[in-house]
Specification:
The complex is a heterodimer.
Chain A (H helix, E strand, L loop, with lengths): L2 E6 L3 H13 L2 E7 L3 H11 L3 E3 L2 H8 L3 E4 L6 H10 L3 E4 L7 H14 L3 E3 L7 H11 L9 E7 L8 H6 L4 H4 L3 H6 L1 H8 L7 E7 L2 H5 L8 E7 L5 E7 L8 E5 L3 E6 L4 E6 L11 H22 L7 H16 L7 H20 L5
Parallel strand pairs in A: 1-2, 1-4, 2-3, 4-5, 5-6, 7-10
Antiparallel strand pairs in A: 7-11, 8-9, 9-10, 11-12, 12-13
Helix pairs in contact in A: 1-13, 4-5, 5-14, 10-14
Chain B lengths: L11 E5 L6 H10 L5 E5 L6 H8 L8 E4 L5 H8 L2 E6 L8 H22 L4 E5 L15 E2 L9 H4 L2 H20 L3 E6 L1 E3 L11 E4 L2 E4 L8 E3 H13 L6 E5 L7 H11 L4 E3 L2 H17 L10 H9 L2 E2 L2 H7 L7 H10 L3
Helix pairs in contact in B: 1-2, 1-7, 3-4, 4-6, 8-12, 9-10
Classes of the chains: A alpha/beta, B alpha/beta.
Chain lengths: ~350, ~350
């Protein structure tokens, strides 16, 4: 029997959810809801969805969906998720999960109390290269616990379409978030660090405004962020968010005591770096050849996956939705452990607190 | 001074999108007619050089108000429409997503319509739409496309977010007319070209993989030079007796796509490859079928509906525009092409 789900928030990301859920299969979108009813109607009309609502409580009462995907701006995430959980619906919350870590903890506690599933829209955790990375870690490739992690996340501001409305109005919802632009964009890059760090994390963050953003009239908004982290076990991490690095870096490096891996999200590649030594000048010849062979393997695999239909632009979201819905149907653990969701929120809280304290007048 | 119009120069006219490609020319046309009591609505992030250059040419334009805001804000809309008698709505969002296009077109229009009826002195709402609202799927190739032709019913399948936004915008305007007595005129410009917009229309072809694929063959282009289009919009705002009418806007002399391309290439040498229509049609059908079979593995950028709309080819008329609005082509196509191609030099 299909899982019946609804969407609250019918903006741009909602389309991706509808299409990814269609590809995931085993589910039926039974209702859409948006405070602005015209928005709900346009989504329903395009995807032939029967239920159209402008009031979330009314939708929950009348439709009683098994799950609700919340795709509103982040300020609405916590209150809406709470209502859904209280009404017995499992919840998929788009990123950023909540505005604060306290809200994240409260939602997790409520979901556990109600025996419902909750997940965060960290879909880049489920791309094929990230899942391969996880398989390698589980197989012991690193040779022990990770020693160091590096996460780069980029957003290109060459096209000002995204940022212009944000800069144009102080009332824009992105400007209302404690971490402003970062708050809406860094969750994916932080979530993959949270997977491998323990809860006892110390953080040092710095942020500034790029020349490009300044030229667009950036006001108080910052767009370059660097963060150093260390957990209780001594695992260290570096996080970089940049709008300026070209080509945009979307990568994750995980280094173990024996071997390391580099995951490049932009090209869907994973490179396994094995420790080893080579005699004399062979050190300059053999390792690049080995890496070249791996890139070739990645290209061949991606090409084959593309031809056979396995590779898809939104593969991560499809996979996350499929796993989340399966966890509800099978009563199995949710796809992202709650510890990681809360830790991601905690790290973001601390980053925003530190960069706000750097601002003049604070 | 113009006479015989529904409003006098003393009445307030609001122009949204006034700093845009067409909007700035509409403002210029109104100023040239002595309509200085204008309110120009612009986005907060807009660089206003284009508009300010035009205003600087008219000393009396000091009376023109510049109002900055977001049409998705009802408060900003209320500020913009206060005491306006005529509203010329040109603001358009070019968001690639359907939701974004809907927000920028339909929601923004709904906010404006509500505000206009509540805080304005509504005499006429001029909605500038697009040829993108038409469906050509069941039209014969080279058949006449006029104001009575069917509208697109599957913009999602056509992958045309902009057209979807415009369809919904028109629908709202007509609903407000039927239910709340709004007096409206809708204009559907064809391919608007002119200095300041160097990109070639998709009806001519597409620039991809580093070269230009000429897909429009020798199809007649529904072209209208930006100043000629602005003239039609201004007449639609001012002429009496045209409430509830829809006008296609095309110039008298319309070039075939291959000639248009040749004139552009004479000004700026670039490589182009012709794609014959049967091949284009076959490729679009194949792409659409692959998209459906693979559940959207490729973006649905090519499909039968788009193929018919952009590359199938139709013939066009401006008979209604001339008859009811008294429009005539002020700038000849020859002069217009010189002005257009000069930007390549």
């Amino acid at each position: 029997m299909n899982l019946r789900f609804a969407i609250i928030g019918c903006g741009k990301i909602a389309d991706q959810h509808v299409q990814a859920a269609q590809r995931a299969g085993g589910c039926e979108l039974v209702a859409v809801c948006d405070r602005e009813k015209l928005m709900a109607e346009q989504l329903a009309e395009r995807f032939k969805i029967a239920g159209v609502f402008s009031d979330a409580e009314e939708m929950l009462e009348k439709v009683r969906p098994d799950a609700v995907h919340i795709t509103t701006p982040p300020l609405g995430h916590f209150p809406l998720a709470k209502v859904c959980l209280e009404r017995g619906a499992n919840v998929y919350l788009e990123k950023p999960f909540t505005v604060t870590a306290d809200e994240a903890r409260e939602l997790v506690a409520l979901a556990e109390q109600k025996k419902l599933r909750l997940t965060a829209g960290h879909n880049y955790q489920f791309t094929s290269e990230m899942m391969e990375m996880r398989r390698q870690v589980a197989s012991g490739f690193l040779g022990g616990a990770p020693v160091h992690l590096e996460s780069h996340w980029a957003y290109d501001l060459s096209d000002a379409t995204y940022v212009a409305p944000i800069l144009g109005s102080k009332a824009h919802w992105v400007r209302q978030l404690p971490g402003q632009l970062f708050h809406n964009l860094i969750s994916h890059g932080i979530a993959r660090l949270a997977e491998f760090l323990d809860d006892d994390v110390t953080i040092s963050a710095q942020a500034h405004q790029s020349g490009r953003l300044k030229s667009l009239g950036g006001q108080e908004v910052k767009d370059e962020l660097r963060v150093l982290l260390r957990d209780g076990k001594g695992t260290t991490a570096f996080f970089c968010f940049s709008t300026q690095i070209k080509p945009g870096l979307n990568s994750f490096r995980i280094c173990g005591p024996k071997n390391s891996m580099l995951i490049e999200n932009g090209s869907g590649s994973i490179i396994l770096n094995r420790a080893g030594s080579h005699k004399s000048y062979l050190a300059y010849v053999l390792p690049p050849l080995k890496i070249a062979r791996q890139y070739l393997h990645n290209a061949r695999k991606n090409f084959t996956d593309c031809l056979t239909g396995k590779l898809h632009q939104d593969f991560g979201m499809k996979e996350l939705i499929a796993r989340f819905h399966a966890s509800i149907r099978d009563n199995s653990p949710p796809p992202i452990p709650y510890r990681e969701i809360v830790l991601t929120a905690r790290i973001m809280d601390e980053i925003f607190s530190q960069i706000r304290s750097e601002e003049p007048g604070r | 001074m113009s006479t015989g119009f529904i409003v006098s120069p003393a009445d307030k006219i609001l122009v949204t999108g006034s700093n845009g490609f067409i909007g700035a020319r509409v403002v210029e046309n109104l100023l040239a007619r002595g309509y200085f009591n204008l309110r120009c609505f612009v986005r907060p992030s807009s660089k206003l050089k284009k508009l300010q250059t035009i205003l600087a040419r008219f000393p009396a334009a000091k009376a023109v108000e510049l109002v900055s805001g977001d049409l998705l804000s009802r408060e900003d809309c209320a500020r913009a429409v206060k005491d306006a008698s005529v509203l010329i709505h040109l603001a358009a969002g070019f968001d690639k997503s359907f939701a974004g296009a809907f927000m920028n077109s339909a929601l923004a229009t709904r906010n404006l319509l509500d505000a206009f009826l509540e805080s304005g002195r509504p005499r006429r709402f001029v909605n500038v739409s697009s040829f993108a609202v038409y469906s050509n799927l069941h039209l014969e190739r080279h058949a006449l496309l006029d104001e009575n032709c069917p509208l697109e019913t599957e913009p999602q399948a056509r992958n045309d977010a902009y057209g979807f936004g415009k369809l919904k915008q028109e629908q709202l305007v007509r609903e407000y007319g039927a239910q709340r007595g709004l007096k409206w005129v809708i204009l559907r410009p064809g391919m608007v070209y002119g200095p300041g917009k160097p990109d070639l229309s998709g009806r001519v072809g597409i620039n991809t993989f580093g070269f230009f694929i000429h897909m429009g063959g020798s199809n007649e282009l529904p072209m209208t030079f930006v100043d000629n289009c602005a003239e039609a919009i201004v007449l639609a705002a001012l002429k009496p007796g045209v409430d509830g009418e829809i006008f296609n806007v095309v110039d008298d002399e319309r070039l075939p796509a291959d000639e248009f391309l040749a004139r552009c290439k004479a000004a700026k040498n670039f490589f182009s490859v012709p794609a014959p229509y049967p091949l284009v049609k076959f490729g679009c059908a194949l792409w659409e079928d692959f998209f459906n079979k693979r559940q959207g593995q490729l973006p649905p950028v090519f499909n039968r509906r788009r193929c018919a709309a952009e590359w199938g080819g139709n013939t066009y008329t401006n008979e209604k525009l001339r008859r009811l609005l008294g429009w005539s082509q002020k700038i000849s196509t020859g002069d217009a092409m010189k002005l257009f191609t000069a930007q390549y030099k």
